[in-house]
């Protein structure tokens, strides 16, 4: 029996189960798919797939449903993604183009992605650790307090208070600020911290050395802060229509653990970016998430950012490790429509990439879904069975 035909049967079972969420029988498969064999042969193939761990039979008289292994095989071999409809593409333009700020854009992006997929959407703001410095202002706010206003290349604005024993003269403070902006613009926060420490040793700023040291420490703290990325989430209420009450409690617990979600989805987007380039989208299914509350869920995540080079306007900004600056993703049941979800995540990521890069996101390039699907890398170890279709 050809293995390739057996895998065609598996693909058909997954597609039908995603559509109907009902166990799939051999008779239904032969009616709805041109498999070129009898119902009895398909039934034998499904039994073999069950023995190999790709399908399970909930009840003796019922059809079969995919296992986590079956979904993984299906996702890894997606050849194309489902194009977004014209209405969905117009929706991205109209819904996001009216944003007043980066934060507003990210909030809107989460709501829009949730509406498109019918699942939980998560969008992370660009991490300060991966941003570069655009501008710094030192603003007196009290007799012994300065406010450092830090603007990054991704549009994020961070603030940090600095204590001083005596307020420096306005001219000296302006000179230090000018020197910092001249020397640190375009540098990472860690690199900027080193440059500011060097300025603290400069004879011109001897009287401001304590202030410069404190600002350097602030830059380092911003860079090291794991919570420097904010998460914007939408669609959690939709889970109540897709999950049983027994599944909801651990799933909501998982959604509350934002640091865990951030690490998981960030790792997925980084792995997929390294494997598949700017359009890489990662998928983790069930136990691959290593998160108890997500054992019956799947996570789709892709990176976004903006390019510094004019020749690649939609390629994410990458830090020294080659990682995108932030991620956008979707969380839903294991029987989610993977092709449509991947397309939606990638479309919103492209929009955010163009938005941060200063390009016109509405020119169509930011959400062209016609390209082949990524390999949907998950960071899991390869299955010992290898490729059953080989």
UniProtKB/TrEMBL annotation:
Keywords: Repressor, Stress response, Transcription, Transcription regulation. The gene is hrcA. Belongs to the HrcA family. This is Heat-inducible transcription repressor HrcA. It comes from the Bacteria. Gene3D superfamilies: 3.30.450.40, Heat-inducible transcription repressor hrca homolog, domain 3 (3.30.390.60), Winged helix-like DNA-binding domain superfamily/Winged helix DNA-binding domain (1.10.10.10). InterPro entries: GAF-like_dom_sf, HrcA, HrcA_C, WH-like_DNA-bd_sf, WH_DNA-bd_sf, WHTH_transcript_rep_HrcA_IDD. GO terms for biological process: negative regulation of DNA-templated transcription. Residues 103-342 form the Heat-inducible transcription repressor HrcA C-terminal domain. Residues 358-390 are annotated as: Disordered. Negative regulator of class I heat shock genes (grpE-dnaK-dnaJ and groELS operons). Prevents heat-shock induction of these operons. One of its GO terms (molecular function) is DNA binding.
């Amino acid at each position: 029996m050809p293995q390739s035909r057996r895998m065609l049967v598996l693909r058909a079972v997954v597609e039908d189960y995603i559509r109907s969420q009902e166990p799939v029988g051999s008779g239904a498969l032969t009616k709805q798919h041109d498999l070129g064999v009898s119902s009895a042969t398909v039934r034998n193939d499904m039994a073999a797939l069950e023995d190999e761990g790709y399908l399970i039979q909930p009840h003796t008289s019922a059809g079969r449903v995919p296992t986590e292994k079956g979904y993984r095989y299906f996702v890894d071999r997606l050849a194309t993604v489902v194009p977004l409809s014209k209405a969905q593409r117009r929706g991205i333009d109209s819904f996001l183009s009216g944003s007043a700020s980066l934060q507003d854009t990210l909030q809107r992006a989460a709501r829009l992605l949730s509406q498109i997929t019918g699942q939980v959407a998560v969008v992370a703001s660009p991490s300060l650790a991966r941003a570069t410095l655009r501008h710094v202002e030192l603003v007196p706010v009290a007799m012994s307090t300065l406010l450092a206003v830090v603007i990054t290349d991704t549009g994020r604005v961070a603030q940090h208070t600095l204590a001083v024993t005596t307020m420096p003269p306005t001219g000296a403070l302006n000179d230090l600020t000018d020197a910092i902006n001249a020397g640190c613009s375009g540098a990472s926060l860690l690199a900027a911290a080193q440059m500011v420490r060097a300025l603290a040793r400069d004879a011109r700023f001897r009287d401001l050395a304590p202030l410069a040291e404190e600002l350097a420490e602030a830059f380092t703290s911003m860079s090291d802060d794991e919570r420097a990325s904010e998460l914007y989430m939408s669609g959690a209420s939709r889970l109540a229509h897709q999950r049983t009450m027994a599944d909801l409690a651990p799933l909501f617990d998982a959604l509350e653990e934002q640091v865990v979600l951030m690490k998981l989805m960030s790792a997925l987007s980084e792995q997929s970016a390294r494997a598949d380039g700017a359009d890489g989208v990662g998928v983790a299914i069930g136990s691959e998430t290593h998160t108890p509350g997500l054992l019956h869920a799947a996570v789709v995540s892709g990176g976004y950012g903006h390019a510094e080079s004019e020749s690649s306007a939609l390629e994410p900004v990458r830090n020294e490790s080659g990682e995108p600056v932030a991620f956008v993703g979707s969380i839903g049941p294991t029987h989610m429509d993977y092709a449509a979800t991947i397309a939606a995540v990638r479309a919103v990521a492209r929009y955010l990439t163009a938005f941060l890069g200063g390009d016109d996101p509405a020119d169509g390039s930011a959400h062209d879904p016609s390209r082949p699907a990524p390999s949907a890398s998950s960071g899991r170890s390869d299955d010992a069975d290898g490729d059953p279709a080989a």
